[in-house]
Design goal:
By secondary structure, this protein is mainly β. It has no helices and ten strands. It has one domain.
């Protein structure tokens, strides 16, 4: 089974990875950013800007190519969430969870949207 390509605009595209921790958990930023997003592409020159690793769920990308150009966007997202107390604070020895999702998204450039939204499920 082949996944149909996602149409995207050539040029600026906003990547948004949405993550909502499960009930009773909160993103754990006690030791820095609790999220990590890695973006690359095949072929590599599909991404004119935005490749690499960041600690933000949203990031601007710039896709390079003529209308009809095809490739694959590779996105890997991680988020750390910990069980919180009744006050919403994460206690010192809380149980913590790492959520991770990897996507290989076939894309075709053209008149598509300038936004790509991915859901990192915390359920």
């Amino acid at each position: 089974v082949e996944r149909p390509p996602t149409p995207l605009a050539a040029g600026p595209v906003d990547l948004r990875v949405r993550f909502v921790p499960p009930a009773g958990q909160h993103l754990d930023d006690r030791w820095g950013s609790p999220v990590r997003v890695v973006v690359s592409a095949s072929p590599p020159d599909l991404l004119a800007d935005g490749a690499g690793t960041t600690t933000a769920l949203d990031r601007p990308l710039v896709l390079r190519g003529e209308a009809g150009a095809r490739g694959v966007l590779h996105v890997s997202a991680q988020a750390a969430a910990c069980d919180a107390g009744e006050d919403g604070e994460v206690p010192e020895h809380a149980a913590c969870h790492l959520y991770q999702q990897d996507w290989g998204i076939p894309v075709v450039l053209g008149d598509g949207p300038g936004e790509l939204v991915l859901d990192l499920r915390g359920v």
